[in-house]
Q: What sequence folds into this?
């Protein structure tokens, strides 16, 4: 009986070793442009990867502009205040701001998000707050 147990354990070990050889090695995911450059040093492949990254960023920028432009004047002014930009510029579209101002707007949105999250963590869902919640 001991020899059959030993044989069974040895067979299991061989099966595990075989399964490990069959599984592809998992590596940390590298940025697309770096990975492509290592695969083939063709500048065409690298340029195509960069184009994909730029296209993805362009789509995100277009969505940010669309959302900002859809805000009410009051919401735009509040966002601009959080960004450290004069709220009097609330009539401008997102694309009328220069690059540093756009970065400030994004940082302003992040600031507003962090404030909202703090209230939600401590008070609960903000949209359910009533005027009675602030009276003593």
A:
């Amino acid at each position: 009986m001991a020899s059959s147990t030993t044989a069974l354990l040895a067979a299991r070990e061989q099966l595990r070793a075989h399964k490990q050889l069959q599984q592809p090695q998992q590596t940390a995911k590298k940025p697309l442009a770096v990975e492509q450059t290592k695969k083939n040093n063709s500048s065409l492949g690298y340029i195509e990867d960069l184009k994909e990254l730029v296209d993805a960023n362009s789509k995100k920028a277009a969505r940010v502009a669309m959302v900002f432009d859809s805000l009410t004047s009051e919401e735009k002014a509040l966002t601009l205040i959080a960004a450290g930009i004069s709220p009097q510029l609330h009539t401008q579209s997102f694309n009328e701001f220069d690059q540093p101002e756009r970065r400030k707007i994004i940082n302003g949105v992040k600031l507003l998000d962090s404030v909202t999250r703090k209230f939600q963590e401590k008070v609960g869902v903000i949209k359910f707050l009533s005027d009675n919640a602030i009276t003593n």
Q: What stands out?
A: Residues 30-70 form one domain. The longest helix spans residues 43-70.
